[in-house]
């Protein structure tokens, strides 16, 4: 599999830091029948960025744009972790040893195990290091 | 391109001086005889119409103020009997009681004449379709532009304000070549057109914007011209002058004020002392031929300067630079004078944020705090918080440099700030003084 098959399109949404903004985003996604696998909110003074991994990123992007939101696609990778003590350490250590910097990260733990979503400075190198260590990456084809 | 009225537009300066002197003196007599308020004010200032012996003597005459119109509401400053009036207009009165202005037949005629000269000077005429998107009704903008456009033989599309999608459709279907509206409304029309998949420059016949009724900047002109693919001209006037009256000529270098219709001065708003050409201060305007509501040395409250150099167009009529603010719009933040137009000016130089903004002034303890809200442009949005914070700091830095006062900046979602279809109200002042 080519490395770019593991590069996943995350949607990032600019949001003002005031009541109801997340609800507006979530409601739009509900109406589009878009399911959210994982998401996080990063906050700064007066605004935030909502980042989400969804099953239909293009549909989500188009709808939120139509609703007037600032939306961007961002490339991330998703690694399966062991859902037990040491699982995160294993992935973080191998990226650290490969000299790859993590810009931000968030995780979810579902019925099929735990997944770590990573935005890194060098995604291709990260994919190579993770694959070489025998860890599983989730392919972008998992997100329609 | 030949002028609309060569007799006055090409009149040599010396002849215009004599004409202005005669008209000013006649005006002084008219007010002395028929305006109780101005009569009393002249006596108080110990000046009689006989004392006006040269054009410079106009400066001996007392000022008129906006509050005079309110104090004599509705028609106490009129100098003709009501049966001579052919029309009223009423200003919205954002700062108090509304003000009523009235017109004789000749007043309407000279208002129309002024705009006919102005529109001709920017290349409009027979064959043009002029969409008038200023409000019609009590506001002077719509009817004023309408009469001027009809006078030069253009076809008028009187859309007034609002229902923007329909404005775009009609503009396209009827081939509007020019539009008269506020600059912020034209930007709004452009945005709505884009959402409809229409690019004004490419998909319509629109080539000319006649823009005014709110302060705007040279950067905003460039922005409008580039973004919409048209030439944007500044128009100036207020209901006390009759309505929109004067525009730039094709040179786009300041607004020509017809000397046979108006005598202009710029003064220091604090001391009332006259300022020289190029010095920025409050515009004082004397309408030389108005009958129903004569305005003499009227403190209009707009900030500008007189451009005294000869215009390449050849007209010996002075120009004023674009209005850069209002004496009464001025915000005083921690003792520093701030004009909202300076903020607009600064924002247009920052590509990452949009041209709309909102100012919130508050007082924390004894200190004024100014917050400026700006929209992040789609193209500038980055998933990285650090990039966004850099935009925020960049805007704050730029505003601090141009206003000389520290400003908090809030980034908001695109399209979330209010758009204005008339005069923009961009300041929320929460200070309890």
CATH C-level name of the largest domain in chain B? Alpha Beta
- Biggest β-sheet of chain B: count, sense, barrel? 6 strands, mixed
Radius of gyration of chain A (CA) equals 16 Å
Largest sheet of chain A: 6 strands, antiparallel
Q: What order do the helices and strands of chain A follow? A: EHEEHEHEEH
Count of β-strands of chain A: 6
Supply the number of helical segments of chain B: 12
Q: Write out the CATH superfamily name of the largest domain in chain B.
A: ANL, N-terminal domain
Beta-strand percentage of chain B? 15-25%
Oligomeric status: heterodimer
Structural class of chain A: alpha+beta
Weakly predicted, low-confidence segments of chain B: none
Question: Structural class of chain B, please?
Answer: alpha/beta
CATH architecture of the largest domain in chain B: 3-Layer(aba) Sandwich
> Which spans of chain A of ≥5 residues are poorly predicted at pLDDT below 50?
none
CATH topology of the largest domain in chain A: VC0802-like
The strands making up the biggest β-sheet of chain A line up spatially as: 2-3-1-4-6-5
Ends distance of chain B: 55 Å
The overall pLDDT of chain B, averaged over residues, is 92
Q: How far apart, in Å, are the first and last alpha carbons of chain A?
A: 18 Å
**How much helical structure, as a percent, in the residues of chain A?**
25-40%
């Amino acid at each position: 599999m080519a490395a770019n098959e593991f590069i996943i399109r995350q949607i990032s949404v600019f949001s003002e830091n005031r009541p109801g903004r997340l609800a507006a985003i979530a409601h739009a996604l509900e109406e589009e029948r878009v399911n959210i696998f994982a998401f996080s909110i990063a906050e700064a003074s007066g605004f935030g960025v909502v980042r989400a991994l969804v099953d239909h990123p293009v549909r989500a992007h188009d709808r939120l744009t139509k609703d007037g939101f600032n939306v961007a696609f961002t490339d991330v990778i998703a690694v399966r972790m062991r859902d037990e003590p040491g699982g995160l350490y294993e992935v973080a250590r191998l990226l650290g040893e490969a000299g790859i910097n993590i810009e931000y990260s968030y995780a979810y733990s579902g019925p099929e195990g735990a997944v770590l979503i990573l935005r890194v400075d060098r995604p291709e190198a990260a994919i190579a290091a993770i694959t070489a260590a025998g860890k599983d990456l989730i392919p972008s084809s998992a997100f329609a | 391109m030949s002028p609309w009225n060569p007799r006055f537009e090409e009149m040599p300066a010396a002849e215009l001086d004599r004409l202005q002197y005669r008209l000013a003196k006649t005006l002084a007599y008219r007010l002395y005889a028929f305006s109780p308020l101005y009569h009393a004010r002249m006596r108080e200032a110990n000046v009689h119409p006989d004392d006006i012996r040269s054009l410079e003597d106009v400066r001996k005459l007392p000022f008129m103020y906006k509050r005079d119109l309110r104090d004599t509401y509705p028609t106490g400053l009129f100098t003709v009997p009501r049966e001579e009036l052919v029309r009223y207009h009423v200003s919205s009165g954002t700062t108090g009681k509304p003000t009523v202005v009235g017109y004789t037949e000749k007043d309407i005629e000279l208002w129309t004449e002024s705009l006919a000269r102005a529109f001709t000077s920017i290349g409009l005429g027979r064959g043009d379709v002029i969409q008038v998107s200023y409000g019609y009704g009590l506001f002077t903008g719509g009817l004023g532009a309408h009469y001027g456009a009809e006078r030069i033989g253009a076809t008028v599309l009187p859309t007034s304000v609002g229902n923007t999608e329909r404005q775009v459709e009609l503009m396209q279907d009827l081939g509007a070549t020019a539009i008269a509206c506020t600059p912020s409304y034209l930007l709004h029309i452009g945005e709505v057109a884009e959402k409809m998949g229409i690019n004004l420059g490419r998909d319509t016949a629109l080539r000319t914007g006649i823009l005014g009724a709110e302060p705007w900047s040279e950067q905003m002109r460039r922005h409008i011209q580039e973004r919409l693919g048209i030439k944007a001209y500044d128009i100036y006037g207020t209901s006390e002058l009759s309505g929109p009256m004067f525009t730039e000529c094709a040179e786009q270098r300041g607004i020509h004020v017809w000397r046979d219709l108006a005598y202009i001065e710029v003064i220091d708003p604090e001391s009332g002392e006259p300022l020289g050409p190029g010095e920025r201060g409050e515009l004082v305007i004397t309408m030389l031929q108005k009958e129903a509501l004569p305005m003499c040395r009227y403190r209009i409250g707009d900030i500008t300067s007189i451009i005294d150099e000869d215009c390449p167009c050849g007209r010996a009529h002075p120009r004023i630079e674009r209005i850069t603010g209002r004496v009464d719009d001025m915000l005083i933040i921690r003792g520093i004078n701030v004009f909202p137009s300076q903020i607009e000016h600064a924002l247009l130089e920052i590509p990452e944020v949009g041209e709309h903004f909102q100012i919130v002034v508050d007082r924390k303890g004894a200190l004024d705090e100014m917050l400026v809200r700006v929209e992040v442009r789609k193209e500038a949005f980055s998933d990285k918080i650090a990039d966004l914070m850099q935009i925020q700091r960049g805007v704050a830095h730029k505003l601090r440099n141009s206003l000389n006062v520290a400003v908090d900046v809030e980034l908001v979602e695109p399209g979330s700030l209010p758009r204005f279809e008339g005069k923009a109200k961009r300041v929320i002042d929460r200070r309890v003084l």
